[in-house]
Structure formats: C-alpha cells, structure tokens
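Re-running 5'-3' exonuclease to confirm reproducibility after the cluster update. Everything else is unchanged from the original entry.
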Amino acid sequence: MTAPSSATPPARLMLLDTASLYFRAFFGVPDSVRSPDGQPVNAVRGLLEFITRLVHDHAPDQLVACWDADWRPQWRVDLIPTYKTHRLAAEPEVEGQEEVPDTLSPQVPVIAAVLDALGIARIGVAGYEADDVIGTLATRHPGPVDVVTGDRDLFQLVDDARGARVLYPIKGVGTLQLTTDALLVEKYGVNGSQYVDFAVLRGDPSDGLPGVVGIGEKTATKLIAQYGDLAGIQAAAADPDSKLTPAQRKRLIEGTDYLAVAPKVVTVATDVPLPAFDPTLRAEPLDPVTLDELSERWGLGTPIKRLLDTLAEAGTR
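Result of re-run:
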C-alpha cells in the first residue's frame, strides 16, 4: 500500500483589482453611509464588506490588494494616445489626473490606511497599473489564482490548466461569474490565451481602444478560429489568395499601425519589479492600535469586526 502524500497543496492566491472594487462599492452603497462627522465612507465600508464576502466564499490562503500607482502609464499612452482619454479629469489639479467622483477621492487614502492596518498586502508600483501587478503575481504564483475584477481585459490571465480564473462581479460580489477557459469559449469563442487578440480586434471604447473598424466580437471570434491568432490574421490580410472578404482585408490593412502597437497596450505586464510583501492572510491585525483609531474615526466598527472575524475563521481552516 502506498503511503498517503504529506505534501502541502499549493496556496490559493486571491488578487484584488482594488480600484475596480472600490468604484463598484462607491456606486453600490448609498452615500448616506457616513462617518461620525458626516463624511461619506460608502466606498470604504463597501470594499471591506466585499473582502469579507470574498474570503468567506472563496477561501483564499493568500490575499493581495493590487493598487493603481499609475492608472494611465505613459508607455501605454505613447503607443495609443487615446488610451483612457475619456477618463481624464476636465480640470485636473495635476496633469493626467483621473476623473473620480468628488466624494470618492477622499475615501481612497482611508481605504489604504485600513488595509495596511489590517495587514492585507497592498502593492502598487510606479509606472504600472494594478492590472500589471496582477499579471505579474498571477503568472509567478505556482498554485491556483483567483483574480477579482470588473475589467474584462484580465480574462487574458484565465488558464484552466494552472487553475487561474477571474471572479467577475455581476452584482456586488455576491454574484460572481467564475470565468474559466471553458466559459470564455462558450461566451466569446476564445480561451484566455486568445483573449488579447480578440480584445485588440474588437476594441474597447471604455479604454479608448478603437479596434479594427468594422470588426466586432463575432467577426473577431471567426477570424481567430480561422487563422489562429493575430499574426495569422495579418498574414491572411497580406495574402491575396486567402479567404478573407475584400472588406475584411481592406480594414485589416488599414489598421496595420494600430495592430502593431495595440497588443502591447492590452497585454498586462508580467515583469513588474515588485517590492517585498507578505500575502498570507493574518488572523490578527498587523497594527491593532491604528486599526482601532481608524475604526472609531470613520465609524467602521461593524465592517471591520466582520472582516476580522472572517479572517480569524479562515486562519483555523
């Protein structure tokens, strides 16, 4: 009889696209939720409740709150100048400032302070978006990964073989789309490794990516199925004997300059220089004194207690 293996299974890592979640919390929790002195804390409270639910429902061993140190990196703007231009503040205090609701901006430092006091690893790297931090952590981690985001571009990280999936909020975080390769194929006709090519062809107005004129989701899926990837599609466009329609060939050739740079813009970085960090879920807060002060100052006693109870419970699993 073979002795049972004593090897410890690899840790399940959960990566939070923090800004995506606190924006969702801000718009999902009424701004009547306020601190004792009347300041809105709906985004703070909502995010803490989201994290509590995620830890309870999906049982990660490790957790990282990934941060937008640069929401619109210059290297992406240099490649596609329209990248996220519609999100620029109309009258920015500093050049390149993102447009954020007036009552959300003051809550972001509070969110950061609470996460730090709790001891939840928070990582942002200058010159990179949270997506890039997520991409680097997800591809380096040897075990299963859950990425929590409302950004479809991160579907590119889905990999059933590695156990990498995206938890995509449909309603709050109580209803999540568990995005796997199988689901992507069912929904879009492509898997995670093909999603960048699909997104480049289709474009994304929410990120200022024009796509190839006249090519929507269905045509993008069909072209990838026929020619394998973007390189194969471009080779077909250059081949007068290929089965592309004249209109498709014309549009792809006209989009050559865009197609030369868009994949680098859409593809998340996987080589971000990360600082030292500890992603382990803590059963006790890292800085209980500061956490108590923040809890009292901002009226966060209930959501912080719920999260601490859930973290303590997770530590006994």
